[in-house]
Amino acid sequence: MVFKKLMADRCLLYYITDRTAFPGSESTRCSRLLEKIHEATRAGVDYIQLREKDLPTRDLESLAKEAVAILQQLRTENEKLRTALLINSRTDVALAVEADGVHLRSEDISPEEVREIWTSCGAGTHARELPPRDPLITVSCHSPSEVAQAAVSKATFAVFAPVFEKKDAPSAQPTGLARLKQACQTNIPVLVMGGITLANARSCLDAGAAGIAAIRLFQENNIVEVAQQLRNP
């Protein structure tokens, strides 16, 4: 497939945020997170998922607006930057801040329902005189069958996890490379997550993954250097 060839030439990068991993006050953690979003965008990361699921709606919306403003500013300064912002599990917040899309957990509403909401909500109002463009929709998947369902539901791509054992969740059963390879046979791009390091990322790409999704790999390291190593192994 042409898509598979393109992905082999350019590994997709998907940064998932976690402000709680930063030390300090809530204000300090949010500031550090926004700095990391700025860094990721300048480094050419393809997608950023704002995954601050413990935040009250008003605080999440405020943080998301700041993230959107950062992306818009950097895109204005450099039209080659194409980083997209997705909001974890909150279609309402994604619409409110004009993010690029949403990430859905396995138990969330379907991609079809998201698109129905996305294209109808706000159309014809002062806030949105025209219906918003088709959203990017990613879906968490834990088995090849869930990846297949994501494809049927017309998700943009699937995030398959956990491929390897995670340090903070040793009880979570890793899927392994064999099941990842099976999942990648489905007609949808698959990004891998869960215990991904620079040392094992290549094995995932060789299994057919279109890219790498991670929290720590990006958040705890220099993203420019990580991106270069993932895309130029």
Protein described:
By secondary structure, the chain is of the alpha/beta class. It has helices spanning 2-9, 26-42, 57-77, 91-97, 111-120, 144-152, 176-183, 201-206, 216-219, 223-231, and strands at residues 12-16, 47-50, 84-88, 101-104, 136-141, 157-160, 190-192, 211-214. An 8-stranded parallel beta barrel has the order 1-2-3-4-5-6-7-8, surrounded by 5 helices. The longest helix is centred in the N-terminal third of the chain and has 21 residues, at 57-77. It is globular. The protein starts with a helix and ends with a helix. Residues 1-8 and 123-131 have low confidence and may be disordered.
Layout of helices and strands:
Layout: H1 2-9, E1 12-16, H2 26-42, E2 47-50, H3 57-77, E3 84-88, H4 91-97, E4 101-104, H5 111-120, E5 136-141, H6 144-152, E6 157-160, H7 176-183, E7 190-192, H8 201-206, E8 211-214, H9 216-219, H10 223-231
Parallel strand pairs: 1-2, 1-8, 2-3, 3-4, 4-5, 5-6, 6-7, 7-8
Helix pairs in contact: 2-3, 3-4, 6-7
